[in-house]
Amino acid sequence: xxxxxxxxxxxxxxxxxxxxxxxxxxxxxxxxxxxxxxxxxxxxxxxxxxxxxxxxxxxxxxxxxxxxxxxxxxxxxxxxxxxxxxxxxxxxxxxxxxxxxxxxxxxxxxxxxxxxxxxxxxxxxxxxxxxxxxxxxxxxxxxxxxxxxxxxxxxxxxxxxxxxxxx
Amino acid sequence: xxxxxxxxxxxxxxxxxxxxxxxxxxxxxxxxxxxxxxxxxxxxxxxxxxxxxxxxxxxxxxxxxxxxxxxxxxxxxxxxxxxxxxxxxxxxxxxxxxxxxxxxxxxxxxxxxxxxxxxxxxxxxxxxxxxxxxxxxxxxxxxxxxxx
Lengths: 167, 148
Fold this sequence. Notes:
The complex is a heterodimer. By secondary structure, chain A is α+β, with helices and mostly antiparallel strands. Helices cover 18% and strands 41% of the residues of chain A. In chain A, the strands form two sheets. In chain A, strands 3-7-8-6-5-4 form a six-stranded mixed sheet. The longest helix of chain A is centred in the C-terminal third of the chain and has 9 residues, at 146-154. The model of chain A is unreliable at 157-167 (pLDDT under 50). Chain B is mainly beta. Chain B has one domain. Chain B has one helix and twelve strands; from the N terminus they run ββββββββββββα. Chain B has one helix at residues 133-140; strands at residues 4-11, 14-19, 23-28, 32-33, 43-47, 50-55, 73-79, 82-89, 91-97, 104-105, 119-123, 126-130. Chain B has a six-stranded mixed sheet, with no helix packed on it. Chain B has a six-stranded mixed sheet with strand order 3-7-8-6-5-4, with helices on one face.
């Protein structure tokens, strides 16, 4: 049995994801972010952090839930587009503070049907159960890619909403 | 980058920089004529035999059908020395950008296909958006207009 450390991130009431220790950079409680006109509504804020302009992703809004305008918690996440390349950064809007958890192989589960049939499925690397909830492990680099942005643009927001409320 | 001069315009909370070399003239909004030369424009600035269709934009770069009262100036922009468009705005000033300004491209996940913003930079706790006349023309006017 392999036990791994992970960070549990609650991106919305209905969506939890997990990232590794290596991916978690910082937890930001009161971020100073700026609006970028014309950007997709789920990713129209940018955070200035250590000389980097870091896009802020609101997965709840991406999935069609009502926007949480009060939310001011971010998790700063590092990723690479290819092994050996420079670290890139993105920030994920959170409902609550991240929690460190331990995950073992026995917790692995199938993707919820609603997820596997939706656009998020292309980002899901795996899934496990924690406290009776499905937790997704996402390909962060793909989430931040132009390809995924285009995929979202082409999709209907209604289909996203269907996906998650079915959990 | 070598130091470069930009016209800085402000409208609806947006601070947009356009290369100074692409600026034709700056006019007051009272000089906007009613003639509509381009779809989506709110009128035309005329100077001699030159015409600039005027566009009014909102905070999300959406076209406004009318000029808000606070938009008191028009930045008239040229492409290859030909007048192409004008943007109505609240303020116009000049600023210099250089290596210290550390221009960043718009991240892939934020860039929509017709986004007119080329680069971003932060100065004095304010996000500045950097574009140019060709990109604004592509965004505001039919692409074939560029070839005209």
